[in-house]
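haha ok so turns out i had the wrong file open the whole time. this is the CORRECT one, sorry everyone. sequence first:
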Amino acid sequence: MLLVTLLGTACSPNETTLTFVESTDTHGSFVEFANDAAVIRQLKSKLGDRLLLLDNGDNLQGSVYQYLSNKDSSHPNIASAFLNFFPYDVACVGNHDIEAGRAVFDRLYSEVTMPVVCANVIDETSGKPYFTPYVVLNRDGFKIAVLGLLTPYVVTWVPERLRPGLRFEQVESAAAQWVSLICEREHPDLMVGLFHSGWEPQEQNLPEDAPLGRENATKWIAENVPGFDLIFFGHDHRAKAEKVVNKVGDTVCVLNSGCRGAGLAFAEVKLSKRSRPKIQIGLMPTEEQEADPEFMAMLQPYLDRAESYQQEEVAVLPVDICSDDVMKGSCLWVDEIHRCQFDLAASWGMKADISLAAPLSKYKTLDAGMLRVKDFFIWYPFENSLAVMEMTGRDVKAHLEYSFQVRNTIYNYDCAAGILYQIDSKKPYGDRVTIFSMADGTPFNMDGTYRVVMNSYRSMGGGNHFVNGMGWDPASMASHRIWNSEEDLRSLFIGWARAKGTLDDTPLNNWIVK
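then structure:
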């Protein structure tokens, strides 16, 4: 019924009705997006230029075929093929697009046919936005301004070597600066935000002088930065369609389509020179749509190239493993990652005393037998690199205390290898972790300094273990970081497992939860 209503929308000579559709956070799951593509093509066929398609980033990470495409410069990137297919009218940049590395995202954005907007990523050489900060689209005599912004917390997740020469500024101050400039310079009939920043911070008492501002700032901007009529956002993967009244009494419509092709967000906007825009918003489920055959035909060459890669044999797994076993203590799902991290660090002359790792995904299992490349995308879904940090024994304990506190977010539930310890869940935060000794039985020293191997996301503050658990700021983290790998950890994990041939059948059994 909703699609029929949108397809039936018309306009008069004195006004126009435009339909905006947003996708976000596909994470390379373009096969899953094929249902959305069917809806978009129906709308495009009926509405033509009165349909405006917006994408909010995070396309360059999350599937085998996307990963392979990032490494293959002989064909257009699959993400650019996706954006050009309809084509989209405007795209924004996501943090996982930056994580793919400057060579990859520069190539992607050189291949797309639409403007890529992001005002708060600054070229340190010129001092100007690296991407187009905003674009003005003209439809039926009306001006639609679209401003792009990206959460600056990229700098806490992505090593500088992947984003050289770029500075990331607060979204709150950038929104205020640019919406004022756009309204003064362009006098748009509709002001649209395209933000890769989630709804609101998990921690509500963020200091006003926090240098990066809020990771998730969309609600704050909608309420506190007048000028926006409509904001599309992403990053937190939570579908939402809500109206907010800002501090001057104007209504701002705010939408997020969710993630991985689970549906679309739409806004039907009636524009008139005589009155404020009238906006109807909603979420558009697409699961009942059939996959669009032309879209799938566009994807097929990429899928074919990826299929042979992901079916490559890697190593034998002797027993079934499950990610959720970490909730009970030492388990093979994480312990093989620990073993890999120890071996890799040692191979580069960075022998580590302790390893930290999390299971990264809930409800995942791998069956005993021959593992293929595709299984390692389940086991290790992210393209983090490897890092070694220097930490005191006291730091390690504090890290593990915080990790248990946030265990419900499983990718933040770090456990340790190289030490013998237990967690008493009945004790208060700060007293739960007891470390008995190093794994070889030698004493563990709270004041001693240890080399600790972990993924780069954690070493840069991802998950806030260092910030909230230990009180470190970014400068402290940088001063304790002594080494980073150049290659992504999943590729290293695959190479390590392939060389090993048969993986272990017994966990390290070095910690338990009481």
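The mean pLDDT is 95.
again sry for the mixup
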